[in-house]
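Hello forum,

I keep getting stuck at the same step: I have a sequence, I want structure tokens, and every attempt I make locally crashes halfway through. Rather than fight my setup again tonight, could one of you with a working pipeline run this one for me? It's a single chain of 312 residues.
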Amino acid sequence: MPSLVTKPNAMYRNLLLFLFLGWMMTGLGACTSAHDEAPFLAEGSFSAKGNLVMIGGGPRPAEIMELIVSLSPDSTMIVVPMASAIADTIGWEHRDMFLSYGAKSVEIMMLEDEDIDRPEILEQLRTASGIWFSGGDQRQLMHYFGTEAMRAAVHEAWQNGAVIAGTSAGTAVQSAVMITGDERHAVRQPFGIIRHENVITTPGLGLVENMIVDQHFIRRSRLNRLLNVMLDEGAPYAAGIDEATALWFAGDGWVEVVGESQVILLDASGADSGVFAEGNLGARGIVTHILPPGARFRWDGMRVSGILLPSE
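Reply #2:
Ran it on my machine without issues. Output:
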């Protein structure tokens, strides 16, 4: 009796092979590593009612500081000076600074370890109209804001309409991946190489995902380290904010450069990259935009679009 199973012809074998390979690639794509699970290209949209203002350190022009006060729904601010080694002094200085720019009242939030996750502190953050993070050491600031509850309280304030602003370290903490300022393979020049996992990062507040921010950018020649982190993390975008300059993320989806210098916007959303001999990183297709004050672009939390220079 002849068998009911017939020998497949070449075309049938090729079809089976194609389907099998397609299934394998789909399965491999679904198996992500911890590196792939960084918050880049996460689902969701940039839909907070509030505003973010990220200053690149250095001088703080009146235009930027007055903008921050104007974005606070009731013109009140909470100053968080905990990144500074002289937090008490900086707290009072920045309190007076905001009052001079028209704030109606300014509270200084001095924190001790026992204040982390304390209900009264969380409530103060949740209900804030404006939160200001001073400069200093971003790792020290995240010591206090690294818990889920502390981060969530800041997010809630922002979602409810508050302005979240900061300078230098107070800018570094706002993205999901935070540049600490340290590196693993130091050479004579700080961040003088672009090598796999050279730049040390830790989680930030996560107010901006899919874009890594850096500060003091042009003045301190920090392109190497931002490219290094961008490629290592697989981030589609990165923004290097220069001193006396701010990147303002408005609640309506527009982002604008404010101040005196530029923001360097790096777009690797269509780039190819990899790790090569001796850990050197390589890439092709990264697009660079140099954005002066008044330049704007659209941001939906995942993609940049509609870049406009001041004359457009």
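Residues 10-30 form the longest helix (21 residues). If your local run keeps crashing, start a new thread with the error log.
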